[in-house]
Structure prediction request, 275 residues.
Amino acid sequence: MFDTNKDEVIDFTKRINVFDSIIEPFGRGLYKPNANRIIKNFDDELVGELTFVDIKRENLGARYSLLDGQHRLHAIRKRNPKRVRFMMRVKVLPYRDYKKRAERYVVLNTKRKNLSYIDAFKGRFESGEEKAVKTMEVLERLDIGIKGYVEDRKYLLKGLSIVEYLATYNLGKLERNQRLFNPFERTAKVLIIAYGHDEVKMELAMDSVMFEGVGKALIKKPHIDYEYLGLKMKEQDLAFLLGEFAEHRKAGKWIGKPAIDVHDFGLKGSKRIGC
Prediction:
């Protein structure tokens, strides 16, 4: 990652036209409520300093890449609908390549409360961070996307944080110990066995609360027959199971218990795995 103290030494400020061609930061979506709030309460004296990187040498048709201030830039442009030349003083960082721009984007934005998990993940992935890259590899292998991010996949999961947790749970250990497994892959296979035949049910099942519950059950009980669990879940009412997982999360109970209960239903003795 960048040495932020060193960065401050070589930063410089200059005046630029906000209507010049500018590359937006790493596919981050514009959050309209926040943008509209800034436009409504806009104050020229409180707008603060936007941060750019000079990327002229890349010949991309734009002089600058925006790192910080997307919503403020949008507000300034909206308040000048005739697109007249509007100069403002901004912070411009010297050139760095795409990967290092992504690293700097993460540094600047992860401290901000309004940066979503997905936006932070995008920056980490673009910068080549190992956990984010491994997570994307697992998603692609299973043809699973994330709602609001990667949506051109067979299945869409709601909630990225649990995906990353499960996809990288044994990161660094899997190659050394073949007995270990990737909890995300097994969780996905359980749900595909249970609901993959029904598009509507699968869409409901790809909820973060069910994914988290099944995934943590598999982590705690690594020897569980996940194919059997998938078949047992297929027999249960989906709405009831989703409610059980949600109730356990809300009550602060171990969220994997509903999955274990489904597995053990009707079994006796040593065939039960218990909690």
Summary: The longest strand covers residues 87-93.
